[in-house]
Amino acid sequence: MTDTPETAAAPVIASLSFEAAMGELETIVRRLESGDVSLEESVALYERGHALRGHCEARLAAAQARIEQVSLGADGRPAGTTPFGES
């Protein structure tokens, strides 16, 4: 990725929360759609946006993996939990 003054000072993606990464991605999309950036900056923004998208997808997958389903016993009362996706 080409370092522009903005991307050189940008936070390390791995340290961003999902919300912060999504917010930055939305800002990048707006800037790219505006057409008010140079070609070089557009490429740098696109590269960072692509990395942010991957980070958001990974954070969502990790959150989904932690979701637990409550399993019910024969009496209909909660009997424990199982990891998301397991029956």
Could you list some keywords that capture this structure?
87 residues; alpha+beta; two-stranded antiparallel ribbon; 3 helices; 2 strands; 56% helix
SS elements, strand count:
2
Shape estimate: rod-shaped
Distance between the termini: 43 Å
Percent in helix: 55-70%
Summing up helix and strand content along with how strands pair, one would put the structural category as: alpha+beta
Summarize the biggest pleated sheet: 2 strands, antiparallel
Poorly predicted tracts of residues: none
* Count of discrete alpha- or pi-helical segments spanning 4 or more residues: 3
* Rg, nearest Å: 20 Å
**Strand percentage:** 5-15%
Rounded mean pLDDT score: 82
Structural write-up:
By secondary structure, the chain is α+β, with helices and mostly antiparallel strands. Helix content is 56%, strand content 13%. The chain has 3 helices and 2 strands. It has helices at 5-8, 18-34, 39-66; strands at 68-72, 78-83. The protein has a two-stranded antiparallel ribbon. The radius of gyration is 20 Å and the shape is rod-shaped.
